[in-house]
Design brief:
The structure is a single chain. This protein is α/β, with parallel strands linked by helices. It contains 24 helices and 22 strands. The protein has a 6-stranded parallel beta sheet with strand order 4-3-5-6-8-7, sandwiched between helices. The longest helix has 14 residues, at 63-76. It is globular, with a radius of gyration of 25 Å. Bound molecules: thiamine diphosphate (TPP) and magnesium ion (MG). The site of magnesium ion has 7 residues, from helix 19.
Length: 609
């Protein structure tokens, strides 16, 4: 008989977490974000307290945003480490469902441990229990099933012997990576069991690097050799595979231009001659023109989401499409020739197979024309009294940035504008959550990035709308002394959606605060609000004042917030590509009828799946 140790299920779970290591010897789970309630305070809470020297427990203010912090942390580290988040049952648990979906879309590891109802059903219905009239096994946590890669409900302690290794396998498997949910029945957390000691032996999780299949490799190499104007679309998988240097070398050796998705941006430095910039709906003319002419598109670690492909109207008619991706699902998308492999392994094998093949390379004028068109938009205005634009704000932040700056955002005007305009000097300098584009990721996410890379200068760009949706982790960052900069662009509403509404023929309605039903005009003092949570905060009125405020940001010991009012109407008119947003087929508005006509014409250029 192997030796056993008597622990509660919660104590066993925590002990197991501390024994799961990365290849560099760090615990894979860096810590646990926790908001306690009756569903986790007695069981898991006791276990986390007892192990507080081995694994930190942090207290946030909202279950969803605690997950955002955890997700930004792992995204910034290229998935090499992760965090866990625990909640009570009911609302605490369902608060995490949005974040689980965010993790699922972005293929990010996250260990969710919501409390669950009593397995023994003694007190049924326990406070916050959903009662399904026809299914006794349903609980609120079933909401996690479609948005996690692994779901389990722990109704007996010994189920952890299989559930925990499965959870870690999922979080560390490059192809299947995503959120896992161990819904932990609250009575079971407190039950004792005699665990084999071997279960808690330290285990190193190797991040598998899958090589390509010989047949797929030779097919892909033949297709590339036959191409004159190939283009590489660099996606987020390039970063997750830590393959940016290999991609740069591959592009250079074969003289193939690279365009970048939102998740892929910063794979190559912005000033590498082969980096033609951002691709797609929020892309540069340089990148999009190269794609329109490309006879072959090689996707590297991309999901080919609609912003990347211009809703599949961007690429030349029927280009050869190769998808180098670690997940078969993505490698086979949209009729692509699959090259299923880890990005780094795949590029290495491909370069060996291609030998001295070189493409014709990009037309250098594409890039210089692009910057000539957009650089003036980011310059400081000279002396006029107009409201600053978001583009001018980006210019000021860019001028204040350096090699170690990470600019981050998730939703609103800024993602599109930053994708077009931000000049990222090195991998990881641009952190955009655009898989779910989740308003409310920003402030909690900025904290996660700073926790992941304390040596970096983190700048969070956030609109007033996203700030209002979720800002309370600012107080956590102030309390924990996590310094980062927040630039709030206050255009008094949902500027980007207002423009989209106008672009689809709609009346300005219910987006800017002035176009809403109200009796008092909204007038939020964001600087005072942030200051009340312990941030250092300042309101500025001009780009010059913004630059002066940014220059002192390094002195702050916690969040440093700069608020600036901006004009909700201008966006960068250059570059970009059509995006499929369905316009009503019939309407009493002439503008809608006009927009519908343009929409029908544009749809004709979509490549069928
Ligand atoms: C959670 C969530 N709800 C709704 C949306 C849809 N949406 C995208 S951007 C946006 C408005 C963002 O407003 P703000 O942050 O002020 O940015 P602005 O465009 O005004 O600069 C909305 C409602 C979303 N992406 N996420
Ligand atoms: Mg706004």
């Amino acid at each position: 008989m192997s030796k056993t140790i008597r622990l509660t299920a919660a104590q066993a779970l925590v002990r197991y977490l501390t024994a799961q290591l990365t290849e560099s010897g760090d615990p894979f789970i860096a810590g646990v974000w926790a908001i306690f309630g009756h569903g986790n305070v007695a069981g898991l809470g006791e276990a986390l307290h007892a192990s507080r020297d081995a694994i930190p427990t942090w207290r946030g203010h909202n279950e969803q945003t605690m997950c955002h912090t955890a997700l930004a942390y792992t995204k910034q580290l290229g998935r090499s480490r992760a965090m866990a988040v625990t909640s009570s049952i009911g609302p605490g648990a369902t608060n995490m469902v949005t974040a689980a979906a965010l993790a699922h879309v972005n293929r990010l590891p996250l260990l969710l441990i919501p409390g669950d109802v009593f397995a023994n059903r003694g007190p049924d219905p326990v406070l916050q229990q959903i009662e399904d009239f026809s299914d006794g096994t349903t609980s609120a946590n079933d909401c996690f099933k479609p948005v996690t890669r692994y779901f389990d409900r722990i109704t007996r302690p010994e189920q952890l012997l299989t559930a925990l290794p499965r959870a870690f396998r999922t979080m560390t498997d490059p192809a299947e990576c995503g959120p896992v949910c161990l819904a932990f029945c609250q009575d079971v957390q407190a039950e004792a069991f005699d665990w084999p000691e071997s279960f808690f032996a330290p285990r190193t999780w190797h991040l598998r690097r899958q090589g390509p299949d010989a047949y797929e490799l030779s097919e892909a190499a033949d297709a590339i050799r036959a191409a004159k104007h190939p283009v590489i679309v660099a996606g987020g998988g390039t970063h997750y595979s830590h393959a940016c240097a290999e991609l740069q070398a591959f592009a250079a050796r074969h003289n193939i231009p690279v365009v970048e998705t939102q998740a892929g941006k910063s794979a190559l430095p912005w000033d590498d001659a082969l980096n033609l910039g951002p691709v797609g709906v929020t892309g540069a003319s340089s990148a999009n023109e190269a794609c329109a002419k490309a006879d072959l598109v090689l996707g590297v670690g991309t999901r080919f989401q609609d912003f990347t492909t211009g809703s599949w109207a961007l690429f030349a008619a029927n280009p050869t499409l190769i998808s180098l991706n670690v997940a078969a699902y993505d490698a086979m998308k949209h009729g692509a020739m699959p090259l299923m492999a880890d990005a780094r392994e795949g590029l290495e094998a491909l370069t060996n197979a291609l030998g001295d093949y070189t493409a014709e390379g990009p037309d250098a004028a594409l890039k210089s024309d692009w910057f000539a068109a957009v650089d003036p938009l980011t310059e400081a205005p000279d002396g006029d009294n107009a409201l600053p634009t978001d583009q001018q704000v980006i210019g000021a932040v860019q001028r204040a940035s350096h090699e170690d700056t990470v600019v981050m955002c998730a939703a609103g005007t800024m993602p599109g504008e930053l994708h077009k305009l931000w000049k990222a000097p090195r991998p990881g300098a641009y952190h955009m959550e655009y898989g779910f584009s989740c308003m409310g990721y920003e402030i909690a996410g900025a904290m996660g990035i700073k926790l992941a890379q304390p040596e970096r200068d983190v700048i969070c760009m956030v609109g007033d709308g996203s700030y209002m949706m979720a800002n309370s982790e600012m107080a956590t960052a102030a309390m924990m002394g996590v310094p980062f900069t927040v630039v709030i662009t206050d255009n008094r509403g949902y500027g980007c959606i207002n423009r989209l509404q106008m672009g689809t023929g709609g009346a300005e309605f219910n987006n800017l605060l002035e176009h809403t039903i109200h009796s008092q005009p909204s007038n939020i003092d964001f600087a005072a609000h942030a200051a009340s949570m312990g941030a250092e905060a300042v309101q500025v009125n001009t780009i010059e004042e913004l630059e002066a405020a940014l220059a002192t940001r390094h002195k702050a010991t916690g969040p440093y917030v700069v608020v600036i009012n901006t004009d909700p109407y201008p966006s960068t008119p250059h570059g970009g590509h059509w995006w499929d947003v369905a316009v009503p087929e019939t309407s009493t508005r002439d503008e809608v009828a006009q927009a519908r006509k343009a929409y029908e014409t544009a749809r004709k250029s979509q490549i069928a799946g």
